[in-house]
Amino acid sequence: MSPLYAVIDLGSNSFHMLITRLVADSVQVVDKVKRKVRLASGLNSKNVLNEAAVERGLECLSFFAERLQDIPPENVRIVATATLRLATNRDHFLKKAENILGQKIQLLSGIQEAENIYLGVAHTSCGALKRFVIDIGGASTELILGDGYSVKHITSLDMGCVTFNNIYFPNGDITPHAFKQATQAAKKLITPLLKAYQKTPWEVVLGGSGTIQALAEMQRFNHQTTGITLKYLEEIKRKLINFKNINAIKLAGLANERTPVITSGLAILIAVFESFTIEEIQLSSGALREGLLYEMLPKNNDINIRQRTINSLTEKFHVDVEHANRIKKQANSLFSHYKEAWSLNAVKVLALLDAGCDLHEVGLLLEYKHHQQHSAYILKHAVLPGFEQADRQLIIALVLLYKGDIDVNVLHDQSATDYQQACYILAILRLAVILCRRRKDEALPNYKTDVESNVINLCLPTEWLEQHPLIKDELQQENEHLAAINLSLNISCQ
Question: All domains of the chain, ordered by start, with CATH?
């Protein structure tokens, strides 16, 4: 059976083709093709799709067809979404499209689209299971409440960044009045839903692709804390209004292809924030295409998403799993000793400390000398389902700083936890690595440890220290390194 899988999404703004293969029980993207077709802009007031838009779409699909030749039909899913739901002449387009692709196209209802968006989020996100998922597309916006892999409440609204752009910013002019009109129109569609959604509580709000992804990318580009807030949206709104016209927009980190529809997408997102009183949205790494893809793959919902990602990386990069587990065992022991005195967050940071233990040597496959930098590079650019961007930043900080000099700027740049907690768990990882220096279980001594404020007390057997002069020397040097994060290490013998 072929390991290749393909998903094609005929969206209202863009057509996407995602090609993946299964490697080490994980999904590896081998190709992505995206074309800005802007199908929704071809709809007239009677929802007839004009020939220019049809031709743009068919030309794009002729490119996709070439790549599908080597993938079994049973491993391919092709779907159409909001614009083709609305188009009265959709059959005209779909018939020609199916002839080009040589495969059937499934026209998703708004509910089906929303269900697959939620599954894409569920398969690639970890943490809270009660999720509110928001996806702003070109011609529709999906609002989904779910728990785990189960959808509880779904709505698909006929409003999107392309259609709202045509209605409220038709000449490209960006004015406070146009923004207000667009936001109020979105709120008018959302308001009838509020009572039903308030009956089902959520723990986290996640956003899919498009507008939310563009805003998150701007945050990363500008080294800002991840997590989209209303304050951040209002800041971007003010900047857009100052540009006065869509053609004049120049925002650091905003892709050129996203510029024409960022204004309308932002107006919709502000309406969502204000209507549901949302405090923060995190970007999800999965959405519609991932939902379609994972439903084709062998079912492995019973495996923790983060663990599946870690297992895949350790297999691909030949990580010494036995040693990683040894360090993780020591790190967990130290964590339990220091947890109360340091008020460590056992739910949040312990899981990320464990991931740091699992992956701290992932760069060794390339070379030893710069393996910490290689590890950081791999984790920065790898697809990590189950780990949000903020989680990734902290894990990268841990693998980059687990030994040697400590660059405090790296710890300040992460936003998964506060700076002090990040310092504490880094110190724990560094101590665990030194104690496990011989890479043998039987080489570890019985020891006592506790903390008093920012002083770590470590009591080791005298005989063991005499037998391990290198580890003794590294512990003494570690006291100098920890000074960078205002910690000190007191070594005593018993």
Answer: 4-108 (3.30.420.40), 111-290 (3.30.420.150), 305-444 (1.10.3210.10)
